[in-house]
Design a protein that fits this description.
FAD/NAD(P)-binding domain, seven-stranded mixed sheet, binds flavin-adenine dinucleotide, 9 helices, globular, 17 strands
């Protein structure tokens, strides 16, 4: 009898896991999504490093239509006056078939759903209770349906309501003190940064990341600004005060429609009271976005869990948790350093940072230890 797996949430984490388990006849997989359909909102870009691309290739990501993604070869660092400080060679972590990739989140979700739809996803599903029945877990949904399964994978994102239901306590992420503003740059006539690579502009208390998301010339911009959380956020006013006051020339980057959201991060990684229940992706741990590894780690964790369950290993939960904990700590420490150094304001510290950046981006030893362990192909 195949083992039954229920996956709660159909984001990058849940859909990657579903694709992996679906291809193994020892498992029968069903994804339960709260929304009525998959979220394919336009414009939201995502960077995927070689660690996740090597896994996605196992489910044929390499067949994705060539125009729908980009492979930037370097990361350019700029200071707040648009001067380029240095660049970091991303190509160094690439191989022939596995390359650092940027694309729209909707393109990735479209790809992940291709082989699943109808048969493996149920929409409009909200978990109200999880209970143990012998070796299995019984899931009750709000619409009075239920499912008795061998394993549950919870991948319902940063706010993970299901986690609070399962663990029977209120578990909330916390506001990291900054907001993310996003826009899509389609008209690049007056764009002065590198259109074929990633640009990181470091300002006082803010940074901007811009990268191509396809081969049609569209660029994704995300601007992280330190900001107290309040109800009436006026984006134009914030950009004027926090960004344009430092560099008026950046105005042209913010001409298109702007969206924003506050950034929440996890207090600690999640481990369930149930041995056959696993947290995945942002539901396991939500990172500060300054390493651009949230989605890549979701994909990596999905593969780790798939491997452990396929091998029928004992104590899967503790093995999975230990491995994830180690990776989470590694990325978290890097994310904090990045967050701090991208937002420096003291001119002396900025000068020192730029000198150090120039040095370390050329040091193979440093790059291997700072990024190599994270970008390593699986
Ligand atoms: C500003 C910013 C920039 C980022 N940039 C990058 C980047 O460049 N590269 C990168 O790797 N990562 C990036 N990330 C992180 C990345 O987006 C996330 O880590 C990743 O999307 C997490 O995927 P997930 O599947 O865990 O969660 P989600 O994508 O949030 O998916 C959760 C799914 O669960 C569903 N759901 C919610 N509640 C329930 C429920 N109760 N029951 C059932 N279903 C439910 C939701 O509708 C959704 O479909 C960024 C994050 C931020 C904030």
């Amino acid at each position: 009898m195949p083992k039954k797996i229920a996956i709660i949430g159909s984001g990058i984490a849940g859909l990657t896991a579903a694709n992996l388990f679906k291809n193994n006849s020892n498992f029968q997989v069903m994804v339960y999504e709260k929304e009525k359909e998959l979220s394919l909102e336009e414009g939201y870009g995502i960077q995927l490093a070689p660690n996740s691309i090597s896994i996605l290739n196992k489910i044929k990501f390499h067949n994705l239509e060539n125009n729908n993604f980009f492979n930037p070869l370097k990361l350019n660092f700029y200071s707040n006056d648009n001067n380029k400080i240095c660049d970091l060679n991303l190509d160094k972590f690439n191989t022939n078939k596995v390359k650092y990739t940027t694309l729209k989140r909707s393109t990735l979700i479209e790809f992940l759903k291709t082989d699943l739809f109808l048969n493996n996803i149920k929409f409009g599903k909200n978990v109200t209770k999880v209970s143990k029945v012998k070796d299995k877990l019984l899931i009750n949904f709000r619409d009075n349906t239920n499912d008795l399964v061998d394993y549950i994978v919870i991948s319902d994102g940063v706010f993970s309501n299901t986690k609070s239901v399962v663990e029977n306590k209120n578990i909330k992420p916390f506001y990291n003190g900054s907001i993310a503003i996003r826009t899509l740059i389609k008209d690049t006539q007056h764009f002065t940064f590198d259109k074929k690579n990633i640009s990181l502009i470091m300002l006082k208390n803010a940074h901007i990341v811009i990268y191509p998301i396809n081969k049609r010339g569209e660029l994704n911009l995300v601007c992280i600004i330190r900001q107290k959380l309040h109800n009436n956020i006026d984006l134009k006013e914030i950009i004027k005060k926090e960004i344009l006051s430092q560099n008026k020339n950046l105005e042209s980057l913010f001409k298109s429609q702007l969206e924003y959201w506050p950034i929440y991060v996890s207090k600690k990684p999640s481990k369930s009271i149930y041995e056959n229940l696993f947290y995945l992706g942002d539901a396991f741990y939500t990172f500060n976005p300054t390493m651009a590894q949230g989605a890549s780690q979701s994909i990596e964790a999905a593969f780790e869990l798939f491997e452990l369950l396929s091998q029928n290993t004992k104590e899967v939960q503790s093995l999975y948790f230990q491995k994830r904990l180690q990776k989470t700590k590694l990325i978290n420490s890097r994310s904090r350093i990045n967050y701090f150094s991208f937002h420096l304001s003291n001119p002396l510290l900025v000068k020192a940072r730029n000198i150090i950046l120039k040095k370390i981006t050329k040091s193979q030893k440093f790059l291997n230890s700072y990024l190599g362990d994270i970008y390593q192909q699986i």
